């Protein structure tokens, strides 16, 4: 009988926990429950989580480095394109003014 009472007490406490979990069905409850699970797992397996942090942190650092390098390269290319565009415009305007000056003198007047 004593064991039956303990089982009933255990079942009552689990029912109470389930009712509390069902009350926290909202987003905050789900997030808190997931956080608790992750926290317990991290406390149980610290080396596994440490290796995750090292590996994925390394990937994050590498990705940030490559992203920054790509942005710097794009900025340099933009500056070079702008400089080239200005040189081409200056060359075109110089060649057009030279062509305007030489074209009346090269044409022979027709009588």
TrEMBL record:
<feature type="region of interest" description="Disordered">
    <location>
        <begin position="1"/>
        <end position="20"/>
    </location>
</feature>
<feature type="compositionally biased region" description="Basic and acidic residues">
    <location>
        <begin position="1"/>
        <end position="18"/>
    </location>
</feature>
<feature type="transmembrane region" description="Helical">
    <location>
        <begin position="47"/>
        <end position="65"/>
    </location>
</feature>
<feature type="compositionally biased region" description="Polar residues">
    <location>
        <begin position="93"/>
        <end position="111"/>
    </location>
</feature>
<keyword id="KW-0472">Membrane</keyword>
<protein>
    <recommendedName>
        <fullName>Transmembrane protein</fullName>
    </recommendedName>
</protein>
<keyword id="KW-0812">Transmembrane</keyword>
<keyword id="KW-1133">Transmembrane helix</keyword>
<feature type="region of interest" description="Disordered">
    <location>
        <begin position="89"/>
        <end position="111"/>
    </location>
</feature>
């Amino acid at each position: 009988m004593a064991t039956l009472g303990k089982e009933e007490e255990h079942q009552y406490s689990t029912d109470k926990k389930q009712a509390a979990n069902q009350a926290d069905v909202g987003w905050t409850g789900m997030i808190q429950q997931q956080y608790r699970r992750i926290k317990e797992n991290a406390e149980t397996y610290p080396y596994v989580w440490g290796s995750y942090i090292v590996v994925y942190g390394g990937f994050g650092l590498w990705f940030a480095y490559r992203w920054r390098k790509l942005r710097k390269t794009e900025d340099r290319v933009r500056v070079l394109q702008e400089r080239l565009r200005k040189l081409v415009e200056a060359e075109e305007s110089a060649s057009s003014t030279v062509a305007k000056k030489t074209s009346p003198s090269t044409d022979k007047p027709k009588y």
